[in-house]
Amino acid sequence: MGSRIDSEHPRVPAQARTEARTEARNKLFLGSFVHSKALDELDYLHDAAVCVDKSGTIVAVERDCDEAKARETVLPRLGWDADDVEVVRAREGQFFFPGFIDTHLHASQYPNVGIFGKSTLLDWLNTYTFPLEASLSNPAKARQVYTRVVRKTLSHGTTCAAYYATIDVASTNLLADLCLAAGQRALVGRVCMDQLSPDYYRDASAAVAIADTRASIAHIRAADPSLSLVRPVITPRFAPACSVALMRQLGALAAEQPDLPIQTHISENKNEIALVKELFPPHTTGAADDSYAAVYDATGLLTERTILAHAVHLTDAEAALVAERKAKVSHCPCSNSAITSGAARVRRLLDRGIACGLGTDMSGGYSPSVLEAARHAVLVSRHVVLAPGGEERDKLSVEEVLYLATRGGAEVVGLEGTVGGFEVGMEWDAQLVGLGQIGEDGEVVVGEGRGGGEEEQGESGDVDVFGWESWPERVAKWVYNGDDRNTKRVWVKGRLVHQRKF
Ligand SMILES: O=c1[nH]c(=O)c2nc[nH]c2[nH]1
Ligand SMILES: [Zn+2]
């Protein structure tokens, strides 16, 4: 078992504590709303109203509805007390957008973002990653890192994150507690790895890995019994680091607890794939062939609840198997470029009906921002077009990568219909986006602290809007040049969890 940490009272930012006390009010959001309608289509609602009840559920979406109309017609229809409604208005040029879903990241690797040199996966793990992850068995360090990563990702509009922690149970549980306290939706995985990693950072046996995984699951189930905000996720690190016995037992655990997702890595790097073939000839697993996907399938880990990170080099037969099992893919383009893994052919996966989302994969990826992952997804898809066998239609558009960042991600983490869009019955996981507005004299009139004085006006970074751009052009400018300076406020399940101060 890992070291002990008192995770009863995680330090919660004062702001979040206050909000937790004051947030349980019905809310009326007014202004422009942008969300995905289909893979390649955004829906723009202007002068609209969205009503969110005390539980954080969207109960009305009204087009062409200003505040007066909402008060006259919508609030009475909902039976709401018009004097006890919190009104949140997007200013001219601002818009509400669904919160981002980061379908794959390692909270424990956050201190290493940007530190990878010229390494590739297997040497990167040994040089940079395992030593850092092992060091997080230090409770104070774990608290420092995990507190920071939750705040940082929220500040970039990530309302839901599928986290890997480490093999240490206590600090994994602390990460779950911190997510719960800060109000971030999360999948939190205690990492399982009983072979081929250094002695100082390895499960002593499959039995220990299973017992520790069960302990972490029990903690998270107790902390959030409905699993409505934070869920445990069964996490075999990747096949090379897991014995067949461990993978089989994790597959059995997943079958025993059908409300839990599974996350792992697949086909990220060519040397890794060669290693899988060497380690797991079909007779060791009973697999149909020696492919990577077949190893997971034979051990009960390739299911419709499985999130497969990377899937860069899947063969057509493997892609067909993944589609047949309805497993999901987390596309991590920033990581795949940074540690020279390759360019995933996302269109090929989508064409097969495989649900895909985006992952930052920190710290294989160097950025905590899903917006950064989205723009990398656009660029990597251009390289796919240029590579042998590439086709023009492999290109991903701004609309498509925003779909992957929201609705696609929701499907990947098993929350389709709950988050990822603005529809009645969905939960209000959202961000208020503000872009800089340039005046006639060429100076910034909104943003960079000018033009209104309200907090969220703040600085608007690198996105300058001149006023003649169409809404799709504004959104494209945000995707290519936006960052956390444009993320003015963030809500999860109706609760304000981040507000930009400058
Ligand atoms: O991107 C990755 N990050 C990791 O930590 C890891 N471990 C195995 N395979 C991995 N891939
Ligand atoms: Zn990863």
From TrEMBL:
State the reactions this protein catalyses: guanine + H2O + H(+) = xanthine + NH4(+)
UniProt entry tagged with the keyword Ribonucleoprotein: no
TM region positions: none
Pathways involved:
Purine metabolism; guanine degradation; xanthine from guanine: step 1/1
A GO cellular component annotation in the UniProt record: cytosol
Q: What is its EC number?
A: 3.5.4.3
A Pfam family (short name) is Amidohydro_1
Residue span(s) of domain Amidohydrolase-related? 97-497
Q: Which GO molecular function, any one, fits this protein according to its record?
A: zinc ion binding
InterPro entries in alphabetical order: Amidohydro-rel (IPR006680), Guanine_deaminase (IPR014311), Metal-dep_hydrolase_composite (IPR011059), Metal_Hydrolase (IPR032466), Metallo-dep_hydrolases (IPR051607)
Keywords on record? Hydrolase, Metal-binding, Zinc
List cofactor names only: Zn(2+)
Report if keyword Zinc is assigned: yes
State the PANTHER family in the record: GUANINE DEAMINASE
- Protein role: Catalyzes the hydrolytic deamination of guanine, producing xanthine and ammonia.
Name the UniProt record assigns to this protein: Probable guanine deaminase
Tell me the organism.
Answer: Staphylotrichum longicolle
Lineage, please? Eukaryota, Fungi, Dikarya, Ascomycota, Pezizomycotina
